[in-house]
Specification:
Length: 297
């Protein structure tokens, strides 16, 4: 017996007559009667007793339907899961980001997504740029987010945000009185530099070279979050990306830095795997968060 036949048997027992079962299943009454004969031929014993033009299930038929209930329960759960997936209400999100994006706008996007889709499960990691790219390439993450993505075969991307690096310092710092900071303005102050070899660290060094200004620092750190932590502790001033500077986690003031150091935030995914419905839903939430950012970042 196949699942459709068991469904017919179940409907007859539930509704007591072939006419009612036919109406519920959207079949004709003769089709139901033919299905009974076919099922009885297949199993080799009677499924119903005929008494005064009425049919009554045999104990064997009742056992079959009782045992099949687990199948129908599983099918109903599967249908519900499919509906949830269709509406992006359930599923898994696997995300990875560099710190400037991960600790700021992506965290907000995750909160919004979980608020709208409470059944989903999110796996989220913060890594260096190379780790983000590797995670997307190896399909450990469906979506990656990074600053300064320069393109790579097999990866698709979308620019989410464009801005410029800023100089951050504690409130009341002498440099806070300036409207714009240039490399030579930092000569008399402790400078917290981003690590050599990183995209933002190298971009900062190139800006100093452009102005023929020597690049000296009192501390070197890998992440802009670390630079802001030190600046907040009055250990110096730093040049960081605007997303980190405006995250609201640090009591710092920021000023534009010149020459301008452009910064772009990207969403990255694999070209050979289309984004899931949930992935597209989440990306739309990220776009909303970006649209809410102050326009003067």
């Amino acid at each position: 017996m196949n699942l459709r036949q068991i469904e017919i048997l179940r409907a007859i027992i539930r509704h007591n007559t072939t006419v009612a079962a036919a109406r519920v299943l959207g079949l004709s009454q003769p089709a139901i009667s033919n299905a009974i004969r076919t099922m009885e031929d297949q199993v080799g014993f009677a499924l119903f007793q005929r008494v005064n033009n009425r049919i009554y299930p045999t104990p064997e038929a009742t056992i079959i339907v009782d045992d099949a209930e687990a199948i129908f329960d599983l099918h109903e759960r599967l249908e519900g899961r499919i509906q949830d997936l269709r509406d992006s209400r359930a599923g898994q999100l696997r995300l990875v980001a560099t710190p400037p994006i991960g600790y700021g706008m992506l965290a907000t996007a995750i909160q919004r997504t979980q608020s709208l889709r409470p059944k989903i499960r999110t796996y989220f990691d913060v890594r260096r740029y190379e780790g983000v790219i590797n995670s997307v390439e190896s399909h450990k993450a469906e979506l990656g987010f990074a600053l300064g993505f320069s393109g790579k075969p097999g990866l698709a991307s979308e620019v989410l945000y464009r801005g410029e690096m800023v100089c951050v310092m504690p409130p009341g710092h002498p440099l806070s009185e300036r409207r714009q900071i240039r490399p030579w303005d930092l000569r008399d102050y402790h400078f917290i530099a981003l690590e050599s070899g990183t995209k933002l660290g190298e971009a900062t060094r190139a800006a100093f070279d452009q102005e023929d200004e020597g690049f000296t620092f009192s501390a070197e750190v890998r992440y802009a979050n670390t630079a802001c932590t030190l600046a907040e502790a009055n250990a110096g001033v730093a040049i960081v990306d605007p997303l980190t500077a405006s995250s609201g986690r640090f009591k710092l003031v920021s000023r534009p830095f010149a020459p301008a150091i452009p910064v772009a935030a990207y969403a990255i995914w694999s070209e050979n795997r289309s984004l899931s419905r949930l992935g597209r839903f989440f990306l739309e939430r990220v776009r909303e968060v970006v649209s809410d950012l102050p326009k003067d970042l």
